[in-house]
């Protein structure tokens, strides 16, 4: 029996990387997905790669806009009849040391991660509480646990997602809505491939398992948190890091 048979999930930032891998794995487990991302062509191309309109739909969405996120979560209900799982995954980096980081670089990262996750969490929870339950998964980062050089904006946002996850989980636990977070470590994606080689090598040297993770290794943990396998878990943070910063 597939773990997410008949469920509908929304994935923000689902056109590529970790979000796309989550969508792919969810469909393999019997779910249908709605991808919300910035570029309509890239999002539609992702839908085609996932198997087309029977299993996936594209919605153009900037997670910093409450109106966009509202349209995204509503699309799950109108297109596929329900919203069972919400994945708040959309993200950006604007790395720079504090001396060089601009106010705009700080604000952009806070807006996409923190406001975006807040929009997704509260609007999905609003639908799920009426429906009698659901699972929300917020993608934080190990950077939010330990703080990383050049990421005062990103570390703050990703730590904030942990606090938000726990506060929100307490508000809706009695309504059957579970909210958990994942903290990925070094995962191979466009975000990390943009890194200079020497920074990649330095990060890799910190991983006890001796390798970077693949997006699919975040997706399988998302399946666990989305499914009834984790039915008694809420407000938790799962580190998926190959042992880095354990
Ligand atoms: N790759 C890693 O090593 C790693 C580690 C820890 C956490 N993460 C987190 O995982 C998530 C996914 O990252 P990824 O590595 O797949 O990166 P990625 O850059 O490959 O994908 C991010 C996606 O988010 C979308 N996006 C960006 N801003 C958006 C917005 N305002 N509204 C909607 N969509 C938006 C992008 O268009 C893109 O499709 C992010 O939250 C990231 O911070 C990644």
Automatic annotation (TrEMBL):
Superkingdom of the source species: Bacteria
Enzyme Commission designation: 1.1.1.100
Residue span, Ketoreductase domain: 7-190
Single GO MF descriptor: 3-oxoacyl-[acyl-carrier-protein] reductase (NADPH) activity
InterPro entries: KR_dom, NAD(P)-bd_dom_sf, Sc_DH/Rdtase_CS, SDR_fam
Residues spanning the membrane: none
Record's keyword terms, sorted: Oxidoreductase
Pfam families: adh_short_C2
Family: Belongs to the short-chain dehydrogenases/reductases (SDR) family.
Name this polypeptide is given: 3-oxoacyl-ACP reductase FabG
Source species of the chain: Mycolicibacterium arenosum
């Amino acid at each position: 029996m597939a773990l997410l048979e008949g469920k509908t999930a929304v994935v923000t930032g689902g056109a590529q990387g970790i979000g796309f891998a989550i969508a792919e794995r969810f469909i393999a487990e019997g779910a249908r997905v709605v991808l919300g991302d910035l570029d309509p062509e890239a999002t539609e191309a992702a839908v085609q790669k996932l198997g087309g309109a029977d299993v996936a739909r594209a919605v153009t969405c900037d997670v910093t806009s409450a109106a966009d996120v509202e349209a995204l979560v509503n699309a799950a209900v109108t297109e596929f009849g329900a919203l069972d799982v919400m994945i708040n995954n959309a993200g950006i980096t604007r790395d720079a040391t504090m001396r060089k980081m601009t106010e705009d670089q700080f604000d952009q990262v806070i807006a996409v991660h923190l406001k975006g996750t807040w929009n997704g969490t509260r609007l999905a929870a609003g639908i799920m509480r009426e429906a009698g339950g659901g699972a929300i998964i917020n993608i934080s980062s190990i950077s939010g646990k330990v703080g990383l050089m050049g990421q005062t904006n990103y570390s703050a946002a990703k730590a904030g997602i942990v606090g938000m996850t726990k506060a929100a989980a307490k508000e809706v636990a009695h309504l059957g809505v579970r909210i958990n977070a994942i903290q990925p470590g070094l995962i191979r994606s466009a975000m990390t491939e943009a890194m200079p080689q020497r920074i990649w090598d330095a990060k890799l040297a910190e991983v006890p398992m001796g390798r970077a993770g693949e997006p699919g290794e975040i997706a399988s943990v998302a399946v666990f948190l989305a499914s009834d396998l984790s039915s008694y878990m809420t407000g938790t943070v799962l580190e998926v890091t190959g042992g880095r910063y354990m």
